[in-house]
Amino acid sequence: VFPESALKVTGIDFLKSENTRQHHTDGYNIKNLVVRRGQPFQVQVSLNRELKAADKLSLRFGIGENPVKNRGSLLSLKPEREDFNGWKISIVKKNGKECLLSVTSSPNAPVGKYNLHVKTGTNTYKPENGVIYLLFNPWCEDDVVYLANEAQRKEYVLNDTGYIYVGSAYSIYDRPWNYGQFEEFVLDACMYLLDKSKLSLTDRRDPANVSRAMSALVNANDDNGVLLGSWSGNYVSGTSPMDWIGSVTILQKYYKTKKPVRYGQCWVFAGVLNTVMRCLGVPSRCVSTFDAAHDTEENLRVDIYLNERGEKLNSLTFDSVWNFHVWNDVWMKRTDLPEGFNGWQAIDSTPQEQSQGLFQCGPCPVKAVREGDVYLPYDSKFVYAEVNADRVYWLVKKVNGKDKYFKVGTETQAIGKNISTKAVGQNRREDITREYKYPEGSKEERMSMQRAYSFIRPSGMVPRSGYASTVQTLSGGTQSLIPKEPVTKTGLHLEITNTEALHPGNPLEMAITVKTSVPGNWTVDLTGSCQLQYYTGQVQANLGSIKETINLEGTSEMQIPLKIAPDAYMKTLSSVDDEVLILVTAIAEVKETNDKLTKETSMRFEYPPITVQMPETARLYNDFTCAFIFKNKLNVTLENCKLVVEGLGLFKMTTFDQGDIMPGRIMKSEVICTPTRLGEKKIVAKLISNQIKGISTEKAILITE
Fold this sequence. Notes:
Layout: E1 9-13, H1 16-22, E2 33-36, E3 40-47, E4 57-63, E5 74-77, E6 83-84, E7 87-95, E8 98-104, E9 112-120, E10 123-125, E11 131-135, H2 150-158, E12 161-168, E13 171-178, H3 186-196, H4 207-217, E14 227-229, H5 248-257, E15 261-264, H6 266-280, E16 284-294, E17 301-306, E18 320-332, E19 343-347, E20 364-365, H7 366-371, H8 380-388, E21 390-399, E22 402-411, E23 417-422, E24 429-431, H9 433-436, H10 443-456, E25 471-472, E26 493-498, E27 508-533, E28 539-564, H11 570-575, E29 581-590, E30 596-603, E31 610-613, E32 617-619, E33 624-631, E34 638-647, E35 651-661, E36 666-673, E37 679-688, E38 695-704
Parallel strand pairs: 2-11, 14-15, 17-21, 22-25, 32-38
Antiparallel strand pairs: 1-3, 3-8, 4-5, 4-9, 6-7, 7-8, 9-10, 9-11, 12-13, 16-18, 16-23, 18-19, 19-20, 21-22, 23-24, 26-27, 27-28, 27-29, 29-30, 31-33, 33-36, 34-35, 34-37, 37-38
InterPro entries: Ig-like_fold, Ig_E-set, Papain-like_cys_pep_sf, Transglutaminase, Transglutaminase-like, Transglutaminase-like_sf, Transglutaminase_animal, Transglutaminase_AS
Keywords: Acyltransferase, Calcium, Metal-binding, Transferase
Protein name: protein-glutamine gamma-glutamyltransferase
């Protein structure tokens, strides 16, 4: 009997199309096999002869630079030995020299890139494209990111487009965003970030550690991460945050240069972090909060200072209220926390405050925010304050040449409004405020707040340390634990509205309505001001103010107009690279009772639309034309217009320079689309000019075989 020739592997087939379909990874634009943990995948091994019982065959999966067995970075799987670190391998069938193997990784395996070698006796076979990408698995019940609902998995893991909600609580609008987690180099960029994070293999098992590390790496602050934040208003040395329409270009550029991309603001950070988390397989959504507090002292109070014209002052305020702020929720079981805090966790990559020495934030259980359990990791005090702080208004007056501070109002329900995300499977806004907070004024809210206060211990009602010496409190007395909205002796109430559409180039026509509801004759001093501000609350320009004294009797109201001419604001509008909002502040004082009330409202400008013309359906690999049409219906010329368009799976991002578009003129641009993927695909378009930053639109087309 001749001795058997040594067993050798002659080839390996990763059965990519079957495996990726079953693992919901067929979207990734990459040569390698991408699979999710805790779920079987198959590989077909070709040998130089039939496999015999005495033969030794093992699959070796190595992760990291120098994989070794005792550190868990090298897994040696033998068909006859069932389990190794929770991984399993079995022979499905043998057919002559072919051998079909099934591999199941552990549902808590470290995510990342694994190098596969096949060992037979003393021979080792190294296949080309032998690197396998292993991701989190929301379809696997034993994975901590398991999400039971298929519609939610489609939205939060597989949807590569969406909306980010911006504007102000008074006028919310959607900004289409291409996440593009399946596009070329995006998965590689995420793997590069994982390596850069220096997370240990053990930490890579847990999405809580991975998401925290990613919240740090998406900003450039400590670690040369993806995006450099800037709120300067001047972005000549990079791309203005308003110009991006998706994450793809940003992550591709970062992966190519390994240098931070300029520039990001909160929705850009959130858009990119959403891409990264979905790409790695963690269910993720962008969350927008309107009137979000950035409370630097964590004392649950934001102080706003006004001058005697009712204009907000930038100079005194360390705290700020952002018109909106966008972060992310990621879905997971928190194995590091007591029961009851699984589900959505807030993470935030906008660099606002350091946490454990780095600009990172979260994961913070959304349930901990709702219940007031703000001692739980990570950063729950900061997130709690963002949605629950009180807003206190101080009037700054000169008395004998010194600034004195008078409290003119406290709002306890003004922060953390209209918390929003894109609805599952629908192109509409879903309000998720209830997941973050109990209804205002409910018994649960009071209990939750008392719980939170017991961990935070807010200071009494005096302004910041630097100004404390000159404080004159108007009412005296101490603040109850949970301040109520001030109930005035006159039933004083303020409303701010716009009476005409707010089109750039037209006068801004607004009105302040003053109401009283208690019998008596009331003399009300009303101060109103209009300013332009960034979404971060930074004031950019003072446009005008009014002072009136009005008389109201019993239950009555009066509307006072506030009108700003175009010349007062158009120059500012053209000179900044950010979208600005119109801030109207009103202060009312009743002479007879000394009642004081302050109200502010932010509004956004309204713009003419972009129209997208294309067929409703198209066939795979069959070209079609898409046209973008814009008519300038404003009374001003839009200078230096750029149209930016992108369609994932249809065409690469394209920019058209349109020059100046005069009033009444129509612009038209066309792009040829080649569908490379099936299903519903979206085209996103954005028009940017000196005067206007925020016109965007999107349209979907169905691609069939």
